[in-house]
Amino acid sequence: MSRMILVTGAAGFLGSHLCDLLLAEGNSVIGVDNLSTGNVANLSHLKSESRFNLRELDICQPFDVGKVDFVFNFASPASPVDYTRLGVETLLVGSAGTINTLEIARKYGAGYLHASTSECYGDPEVHPQVESYWGNVNPIGPRSVYDEAKRFSEATVMAYHRYHGVDTHLVRIFNTYGPRLQANDGRVISNLMVQALRGEPLTIYGDGSQTRSFCYVSDLIEGIVLLSRSQEHLPVNIGNPVEWTILECAREILDVTGSKSEIILKPLPQDDPTRRRPDITKARTLLGWEPKVKLRQGLENSLEYFRSCIASLV
Ligand code: NAD
Ligand code: UDP
């Protein structure tokens, strides 16, 4: 069934891939973005697609794009470098922005899915992270502009479900990578891929023993679309449960790129989580979903994209 779908943050890394999948299924998509961290180049292949429309606007102001059947709310700075630079904007988009998009779902009786994050678990004391864990978040540290905005968003989404009967869904996204990940957003995969391809030293923060679990973008988007069609209203982790130390990840990147770059150690940012790995039992059971793409394959798939970025980066 073809539907009219609103995607906020459409010009971003994940939003643009989500638009692609929804359009490929035959839906019509209205993309909304203020281009604060996104890039219209991520949507340039959709220029002549009559079922796609991009509106440049800030979701922190109330807006109305007409009747929609579903809202995917992906707008927010997402990398530590971006959300630290745009601290107040991040708090606003996770509060006013979330409420404005929920109001659209409420007005039109549309379904709603919010892009939440593993950062809701903070520096987790429970490992791997299960959805029932409430997290260990510093409410006033440098990451709090993002973590608390996302936690406020989760509370707001649950309130619109409980008090206004909106058909809502919450996905807790774990570190995701792939083509269209901004090459200069400071995230570990983008930084290390660019450094390796340029033959520059790979910057490891701390001693590189902290862990992350990396999900390839096509796996993530598939899981999110399945969740949006489920009956589940409580948060669901979507991510790849294979856990890597940052040092192991750097070695894999050297291998895939064939780079001879050295590895250098830099100070660890404050409140950098020591470990992160999703328990995806809920997604497996509920959605029959699990990731297919191994880190090595995903990095290989991303090579050409990062090569093309290098030419345009200063
Ligand atoms: P991104 O920065 O590439 O995309 C975010 C998009 O939102 C950008 O295009 C940006 O311009 C837009 N935006 C920001 N503020 C806006 C506003 N006020 N109004 C309209 N548009 C606005 O980041 P991404 O990696 O694609 O992340 C997308 C979503 O997924 C975010 O909500 C992020 O928190 C969440 N997420 C991503 C990851 C990941 O690993 N990529 C992990 C956890 C959660
Ligand atoms: N990191 C690193 N070198 C870099 C960028 C990041 O060692 O050039 C580390 C960072 O300190 C963190 C992990 O890699 O421990 C993942 O960082 P990222 O910014 O990608 O996302 P996070 O999971 O911290 O939100």
Task: Summarize it.
With 314 residues, this protein is of the alpha/beta class. It has helices at 13-24, 80-85, 87-108, 144-164, 188-198, 217-228, 246-257, 281-287, 295-312, and strands spanning 4-8, 28-33, 52-56, 70-73, 111-117, 168-173, 176-177, 202-205, 211-213, 215-216, 236-238, 243-245, 263-266.
Can you put this structure into words, describing what you see?
- The chain has 314 residues and is an alpha/beta fold.
- The protein folds into 2 domains: 4-176 and 215-238, NAD(P)-binding Rossmann-like Domain (Rossmann fold); 181-212 and 242-277 and 293-310, UDP-galactose 4-epimerase, domain 1.
- It has 9 helices and 13 strands.
- A 7-stranded parallel β-sheet has the order 3-2-1-4-5-6-11, sandwiched between helices.
- β1, α1 (13-24) and β2 (28-33) form a beta-alpha-beta unit.
- α5 (188-198) packs parallel to α7 (246-257) and α7 crosses α9 (295-312).
- The longest helix is centred in the N-terminal third of the chain and has 22 residues, at 87-108.
- The chain is globular, with a radius of gyration of 19 Å.
- The structure holds nicotinamide-adenine-dinucleotide and uridine-5'-diphosphate.
- Nicotinamide-adenine-dinucleotide binds at residues 8-9, 11-15, 32-38, 58-60, 74-78, 93, 97, 115, 117, 173, 175-176, 182.
Topology:
Blueprint lengths: L3 E5 L4 H12 L3 E6 L18 E5 L13 E4 L6 H6 L1 H22 L2 E7 L26 H21 L3 E6 L2 E2 L10 H11 L3 E4 L5 E3 L1 E2 H12 L7 E3 L4 E3 H12 L5 E4 L14 H7 L7 H18 L2
Parallel strand pairs: 1-2, 1-4, 2-3, 4-5, 5-6, 6-11, 7-10, 8-13
Antiparallel strand pairs: 9-12
Helix pairs in contact: 1-6, 3-4, 5-7, 5-9, 7-9
The structure holds nicotinamide-adenine-dinucleotide and uridine-5'-diphosphate (UDP).
